[in-house]
Amino acid sequence: MLLRALVRRRKHRRLVAAGLVACGLGGRLSIVGNRLMVNKGGVFGVLATMLGFEGAFMERALRISQISAIEIDKPALFLRYMRITYPGAPHQSGNNLHDMMAENAILMSLFDNRPFYRVMARIEALMDADD
Question: Which run of H or E residues covers position 72?
């Protein structure tokens, strides 16, 4: 049991280092083949659900070719979050709290956001390869 957990952890670290997985307070992003898997939830999802907000837990699979833009927003008073733009995604409202809770946004970590930048670079490279 312990050995299996260690192997799983080592595999997760390799995926993070390769730019295929990023975990944050608002969930997890992972690249599987030509798809981006967005799993919203995490610590912030539990807190938002307890406070009565909707949409805190969600799973979505997007083809990389469908993604039109990916950007990291750095509001002054709130946590950083990554916003993914694709056809049918909610538009930016200008309200930082509302935009952080949108289905196309995922909250990043408090301290180390390098995995999110790696995932973003990997997605942009795959988007360029499709052109």
Answer: strand 69-73
